[in-house]
């Protein structure tokens, strides 16, 4: 089946742009127009912009919505990732569906809905915001690959990924210690699901 062939933990979480393997025997059952349709489309083309906000296609076609200043900051973050950590940028491009400003001061969020993963970001210092973007993209990856887990398990994983990112890029030890303390609020080791 499609579920087994594509190792889908939850077939309800197939996201826009995800590549699926289709057994050759099923191709005959698909409409010819679907098979012949272009397979690559900018994600920004798929979503209408929220009213009162600008929307541009960022790197990888991810729609970035917000004020001009917010968009410029997010583009700088993506450019920083491209220059300094292409693997981290690949995670963002693979699993984040949209980027919008956070509605909560001082907090970024990854929100799952209708098979997409919207990341609500803060603007600010580019390398630090890049680490936060990587944290949120790690949540999107978890949801896509493993489905929903306990909050403790999800946060432990995302903070661990963010801490590895911060160490790779020689962040100030003070900030690393702060994020280690935040992660410790979710336990002293990866929690069981």
Structural descriptors:
globular
Describe the structure.
This protein has 193 residues and is α+β, with helices and mostly antiparallel strands. Helix content is 47%, strand content 12%. The chain contains eight helices and five strands. The strands form two sheets. The chain has a three-stranded mixed sheet with strand order 3-5-4. It has a two-stranded antiparallel sheet with strand order 1-2. A hairpin with a 5-residue loop joins β1 and β2. The longest helix has 21 residues, at 126-146. The chain is globular. The two termini are 27 Å apart. The relative contact order is 0.11.
Radius of gyration: 18 Å
Judging from the principal axes of the Cα atoms, what is the shape? globular
Assign the structural class, choosing from mainly alpha, mainly beta, alpha/beta, alpha+beta, or little secondary structure. Answer: alpha+beta
The end-to-end distance, rounded to whole angstroms, is: 27 Å
Helical fraction equals 40-55%
Order of strands in the sheet with most strands: 3-5-4
Chain-wise SSE layout:
Elements: H1 2-5, H2 24-27, H3 32-36, E1 54-57, E2 63-66, H4 68-84, H5 86-95, E3 98-101, E4 109-113, E5 116-121, H6 126-146, H7 151-168, H8 173-184
Parallel strand pairs: 3-5
Antiparallel strand pairs: 1-2, 4-5
Helix pairs in contact: 4-5, 4-6, 5-6, 6-7, 7-8
